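Budget justification aside, the reviewers requested a transparent look at the raw inputs and outputs of the sequence design task funded under Objective 1. We therefore reproduce one unedited record. The lines immediately below are the structure tokens for a 54-residue chain.
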């Protein structure tokens, strides 16, 4: 990340902090959804290991 990128982020937070917070919350929710979806996917190797004890 360049210093100019950091300055742009700081400026954006100073101008509209609520917009940045909403975007971060959306990204966290998206990651949580992807993790949950992957974990529940029956084709996922971890599900196969749990479903079929060794």
């Amino acid at each position: 990340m360049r210093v100019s990128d950091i300055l742009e982020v700081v400026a954006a937070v100073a101008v509209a902090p609520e917009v940045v917070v909403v975007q971060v919350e959306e990204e966290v929710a998206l990651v949580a959804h992807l993790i949950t979806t992957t974990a529940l996917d029956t084709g996922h190797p971890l599900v196969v290991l749990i479903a079929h004890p060794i």
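The chain has a mean pLDDT of 55. The longest helix spans residues 17-40. Computational costs for records of this kind are itemized in the attached budget.
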